[in-house]
Amino acid sequence: MLIALHRLADVARITEATKVMKEAGASDVCFFEGDIRDPDAIEALIDAVEILGPLDVLVNNAGIQKTVSLQDLPQDIWDAIIGVNFSGALHTMRHAMPRMAERGFGRVINIAFVHGLVASKDKAPYVVAKFGLVGLSKVVALEYAHVGSRETGGVTVNCICSG
Fold first, then answer.
1. Closest CA to 126 of 113, 136, 110
2. Do the domain assignments include residue 115?
3. Which domain holds residue 149?
4. Above 70 in pLDDT, residue 154?
5. pTM
6. Is 126 a catalytic residue?
7. Looking at 9-162, which runs of residues are DSSP E strands?
């Protein structure tokens, strides 16, 4: 099983993540850099992964958080949190799912954590992004529910709200 990882990370984190994945049974681990907030970078990422093999499982787990009141919330913090926690997932699905649909198989797992279901004080952008991810997951699951068959396995979208 080939695993493609994406993250803005230093060499030490990349090395450690690769080691952990291989110890867990991955035959190979490829690491891709890029800004998850950039739709063009995401498209290039999906293209690069698909060169290595079909993207069968997409896990949207990118996340950043900053605790700040709405009154004190700067625009750049809002943009960064929404970009990483919501828009990145939107664009990975937008580019990956049509390819999954063509093959009749794919699994998308979006991670919203508990903040996809409940609010917390001083976490407006994070909560908005995670509530949005839950809603987006439901919409996309409905849009792709008809794809595939029992034989191919179909295309599914799930959202995990742990915590």
1. 113
2. yes
3. 55-160
4. yes
5. 0.92
6. yes
7. 28-32, 57-60, 105-111, 154-160
Closest Cα to residue 112, out of 36, 59, 66? 59
Phi and psi (nearest 5°) for 28?
-155, 150
Percent of the chain with pLDDT over 70: 99
User: Would you state the pLDDT for residue 8?
Assistant: 66
Helices and strands, number each (H, E), in the chain: 5, 5
**pLDDT (tens digit per residue) in 21-69:** 999 998 889 888 888 999 999 999 999 999 999 999 999 999 999 999 9
Residues 6+ apart with CB under 8 A from 39: 87, 91
CATH code at 148?
Answer: 3.40.50.720
Cβ-contact 118, 101 below 8 angstroms: no
How many domains in the chain? Answer: 1
In one-letter notation, the amino acid at residue 41 is A
pLDDT, one tens digit per residue, over 77-132 is 999 999 999 999 999 999 999 999 999 999 999 999 999 999 999 999 999 999 99
Catalytic choice (83, 126, 144, 157): 126
Strand order in the sheet with 57-60: 57-60, 105-111, 154-160
| 27 DSSP assignment | S
Asked if the structure places residue 142 within a domain, the reply is yes
